[in-house]
Design a protein that fits this description.
The protein has about 140 residues and is mainly alpha-helical. Helices cover about 50% and strands about 5% of the residues. The protein is elongated and about 55 Å long.
């Protein structure tokens, strides 16, 4: 898979913020709808601009997601070690949702989110810790 255009990305004021430019000023995405109605309705300029702002934030979100995955992984390990199943379940769910989104971003095969089962649930993690401790 080819790498995406590095950030930061910005919306283009010259087209009412309906397109996204890379750091070199070259177009990354055009969110304006020029072809007429979409399913009976034309998208308004403010919806196109909102879509462009969301796309422009993508590199920042990707970086933040990577940091959050790392932090949640450490927090999950701590919760497992402290036998805090509630926190472990919450950390695991948040981490897995971010991993799912990152896999989608990178083009990895991604099942529907409802079909994703954590690779390491608190229950299986606790069982592994218990086994390692010889209990």
């Amino acid at each position: 898979m080819a790498a995406h255009t590095p950030g930061p990305w910005v919306t283009d004021a010259e087209v009412e913020h309906q397109s996204v430019l890379g750091p070199d000023g070259i177009l990354v995405a055009d969110c304006a709808i020029f072809g007429g109605p979409t399913v009976g309705k034309a998208r308004s300029a403010h919806i196109c601009a909102s879509n462009a702002r969301l796309i422009a934030a993508a590199p920042d979100y990707a970086e933040a997601a990577g940091l959050a995955i790392t932090a949640l992984s450490f927090a999950l390990e701590h919760a497992i070690n402290e036998r805090d199943d509630v926190a472990a379940a919450q950390y695991s769910a948040a981490r897995n949702a971010l991993i799912w989104a990152d896999n989608k971003r990178t083009g990895r095969n991604v099942p529907a989110m409802k079909d994703v089962t954590p690779a390491r649930t608190p229950l299986t993690s606790r069982a592994a810790v218990t086994k390692a401790e010889g209990r």
